[in-house]
Amino acid sequence: MAVFVCEKCGYEKETRCKPRKCPQCGESNTFKKKEA
User: Residues 23, 36, 2, 28: what is their CA dihedral angle, to the nearest 10 degrees?
Assistant: First the structure.
């Protein structure tokens, strides 16, 4: 599992795959992997 952070709003989601769309701000392709 990895943590991905939306670069626009800061929303964090723990998942296996990079999310396509942020559920908080609605932007697409804004997620970057957060290093543990």
Answer: 30
